[in-house]
């Protein structure tokens, strides 16, 4: 993910980030299922999605803590 894309995603609201999280988890589940049937062309995609999910979770928690503290 490019820096500009990352900054744009980071500036989303908590609800939008949670929607993005649901979509990404669905995509990861689908890819994992496909990978269990036959090898993926790019298995690094699984790793990248897991890292992106962690990044989204971090953004969500930091926004919740930031809003809660104010």
SSE map:
Layout: H1 3-10, H2 14-37, H3 44-69
Helix pairs in contact: 2-3
What would you say this structure looks like, in words?
This protein has 70 residues and is mainly alpha-helical. It has a domain at 27-35 and 42-70. Helices cover 83% and strands 0% of the residues. The protein is built from 3 helices and no strands. It has helices spanning 3-10, 14-37, 44-69. α2 (14-37) packs antiparallel against α3 (44-69). The longest helix has 26 residues, at 44-69. The radius of gyration is 14 Å and the shape is elongated. The chain starts with a helix and ends with a helix.
Beta-strand fraction estimate:
under 5%
Mean pLDDT over all positions: 90
Q: Care to count the β-strands?
A: 0
- Give the SSE order as H and E letters: HHH
Mind summarizing the main beta sheet? none
- Poorly predicted ranges: none
Helix-and-strand structural type: mainly alpha
Helical content stands at over 70%
Instruction: Figure out the total of helices.
Output: 3
Tell me the distance between the termini.
31 Å
Rg on CA atoms, Å: 14 Å
**Dominant shape:** elongated
Keywords:
70 residues, mainly alpha, 3 helices, 83% helix
Brief rundown of the structure:
With 70 residues, this protein is mostly helical.
């Amino acid at each position: 993910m490019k820096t500009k894309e990352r900054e744009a995603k980071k500036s989303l609201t908590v609800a939008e980030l949670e929607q993005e999280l649901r979509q990404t988890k669905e995509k990861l589940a689908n890819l994992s299922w496909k990978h269990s049937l036959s090898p993926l062309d790019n298995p690094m995609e699984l790793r990248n999605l897991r890292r992106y999910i962690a990044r989204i979770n971090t953004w969500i928690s930091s926004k919740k803590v930031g809003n809660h503290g104010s």
